[in-house]
């Protein structure tokens, strides 16, 4: 049976879709069967970040409404054999995503895939609650910034109360993915440090993704950053995070912290 | 700003941390207001099984302190009609 992960944050624009794509591609490169599922009805973007926007024929709502079978709606990645995408619908009717429909789809996906990664929409409405409903594990994407930390705290509360696991009295496993981190700014005291965010949210750390141009470059060309440039700093951080998701013990390194004297001088000028 | 001010860095992150800690402590406590609503409904249902009560005459309040929380329930039970007539 596959493992269901929700990638969530409450706040928009912190990197949920980027992280879903990057983690999905990283896990698929380990030869595990992965499906990334977009729950953002009306504002789908995972297809675009994955570079599959022109190949979407059927989406999740089509499957729920019986207009298409699940295998017809699954889009296989052109680069990775074991990576699939289930797109969200672009309909304006948010109610088209029904709890029963989502339950059926997740149940079926669990039979065929090792990992089902659900990309949650921002906010705390229907789409977000449905995305987390069936999760076995949550990745809480947070930026080192006050509004993102506050919203993550709210989402953690929902993960502990509104999910099936919580309702069955089980503990929901939650992991913090700190994105857009700038070690130099944190060192200077201008950005919350990793320890600050961990202290406040008190959930274990899955990884630290450095602020980087490579993330934008990857989305420009329609590739998860772990495929576009596997040796870039954010890609390496996502690979480590994926290994931790898979249960490996990988020591945490703060990306970009070790800088020589020259790096420090130029790093400051650039910031 | 004095000339020394140019060299003294005032960092903003500690302030962010402190503000968040205060805010979230408050917000986490007030999430309990959902609990009060649930309690109110369930307590009302139990009482209504045995005596007729007016839903508006049930007060449930929760006071949270640093060390203890106090749950106060106040139910107004109307006099039975028979007694009223007498």
From TrEMBL, chain A:
Binding site for ATP: 11-18
Gene Ontology biological process terms, A to Z: division septum assembly; negative regulation of cell division
Chain segments annotated as coiled-coil in the UniProt record: none
Domain CobQ/CobB/MinD/ParA nucleotide binding: 5-225
GO MF annotations, alphabetized: ATP binding; ATP hydrolysis activity
Cellular component per GO, a single term: cytoplasmic side of plasma membrane
Record's keyword annotation contains Lipoprotein: no
SUPFAM superfamilies: P-loop containing nucleoside triphosphate hydrolases (SSF52540)
CDD domains: MinD
Record's keyword terms, sorted: ATP-binding, Cell cycle, Cell division, Nucleotide-binding, Septation
Family the entry assigns: Belongs to the ParA family. MinD subfamily.
NCBIfam families: minD_bact
Role, per record: ATPase required for the correct placement of the division site. Cell division inhibitors MinC and MinD act in concert to form an inhibitor capable of blocking formation of the polar Z ring septums. Rapidly oscillates between the poles of the cell to destabilize FtsZ filaments that have formed before they mature into polar Z rings.
Oligomeric form and interacting partners: Interacts with MinC and FtsZ.
UniProt name for this protein: Septum site-determining protein MinD
Organism (species): Pseudorhizobium pelagicum
From TrEMBL, chain B:
Superkingdom, natural source: Bacteria
Keywords annotated in UniProt: Cell cycle, Cell division
Gene3D superfamilies tied to this protein: Cell division topological specificity factor MinE
Signal sequence interval, chain numbering: none
Family: Belongs to the MinE family.
Function: Prevents the cell division inhibition by proteins MinC and MinD at internal division sites while permitting inhibition at polar sites. This ensures cell division at the proper site by restricting the formation of a division septum at the midpoint of the long axis of the cell.
Name of the featured protein: Cell division topological specificity factor
Source organism (scientific name): Pseudorhizobium pelagicum
Gene: minE
């Amino acid at each position: 049976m596959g493992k269901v992960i929700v990638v969530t944050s409450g706040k928009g624009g912190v990197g949920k879709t980027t992280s879903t794509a990057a983690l999905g591609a990283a896990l698929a490169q380990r030869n595990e069967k992965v499906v990334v599922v977009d729950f953002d009805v009306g504002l789908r973007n995972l297809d675009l970040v994955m570079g599959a926007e022109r190949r979407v024929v059927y989406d999740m709502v089509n499957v729920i409404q019986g207009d298409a079978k699940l295998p017809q709606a699954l889009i296989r990645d052109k680069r990775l054999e074991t990576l699939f995408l289930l797109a969200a619908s672009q309909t304006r009717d948010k109610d088209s995503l029904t709890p029963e429909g989502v339950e059926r789809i997740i149940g079926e996906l669990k039979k065929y895939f090792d990992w089902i990664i659900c990309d949650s929409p921002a906010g705390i409405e229907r789409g977000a609650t449905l995305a987390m409903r069936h999760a076995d594990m949550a990745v809480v994407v947070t930026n080192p910034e006050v509004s993102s930390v506050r919203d993550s705290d709210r989402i953690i509360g929902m993960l502990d109360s509104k999910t099936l696991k919580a309702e069955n009295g089980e503990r929901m496993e939650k992991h913090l993915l700190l994105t857009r981190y700038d070690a130099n700014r944190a060192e200077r005291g201008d950005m919350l440090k990793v320890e600050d965010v961990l202290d406040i949210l008190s959930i274990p750390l899955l990884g630290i993704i450095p602020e980087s141009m490579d993330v934008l470059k990857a989305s420009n060309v329609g590739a998860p950053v772990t495929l576009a440039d596997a040796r870039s700093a954010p890609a390496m951080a996502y690979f480590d995070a994926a290994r931790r998701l898979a249960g490996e013990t990988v020591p945490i390194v703060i990306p970009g912290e070790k800088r020589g004297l020259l790096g420090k001088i130029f790093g400051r000028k650039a910031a | 700003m004095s000339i020394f001010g140019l060299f003294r860095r005032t960092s903003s992150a500690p302030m962010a941390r402190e503000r968040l800690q205060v805010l979230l402590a408050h917000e986490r406590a007030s999430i309990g207001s959902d609990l009060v609503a649930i309690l109110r409904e369930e307590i009302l249902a139990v009482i209504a099984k045995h005596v007729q009560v007016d839903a508006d005459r049930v007060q449930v309040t929760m006071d949270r302190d640093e060390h203890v929380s106090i749950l106060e329930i106040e139910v107004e039970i109307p006099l039975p009609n028979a007694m009223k007539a007498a």
